[in-house]
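For reference, the entry.
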Amino acid sequence: MESNIIRFLEKQNFVIVTTIDRRGRSHNSCKGIVKIGRNGHIHLLDLYEGRTQENLRHNSNISITAVDEHKFEGYSLKGRARIIEIDQIRSRHIRTWEKKISDRITHRIIKNIHGEKGHSRHPEALLPKPKYLISMKVEEIIDLTPHYLKEGFK
């Protein structure tokens, strides 16, 4: 995976994960990335044992989408995933997740101090502990940036 895509994804607070249910319908949910490898593996922690987990147990197809509206840039990554149970998750993944949560809370506090309106509480502090890890092998990357922006204005 290219380093510019890795840097882009690392800056995202969350990504949209899409899985397919038993009836062939898509299911979207928000997940946090905890590790991105140059070898095309992405690890995401899931805080809930719900539809995403159920869908992945019967269909390993997955996509991750992230966009930066301000930069007009984004990517959709498609691939296959496997579930890693909580007792097999490396402690560094949990520590990475905890640091990201702390950083998000700090960022929200700073914005609140500066008078930017946002959520009146700190929802990140109320998040449950991770339930399992999704390990995704990226098979295809789609650049969502419009072609005219990549080519420059003509």
Strands lie at 15-20, 26-36, 41-46, 61-68, 73-85, 132-143. The chain has a mean pLDDT of 88. The domain at 3-89+130-146 is CATH 2.30.110.10 (Pnp Oxidase; Chain A). The chain is about 30% helix and 35% strand.
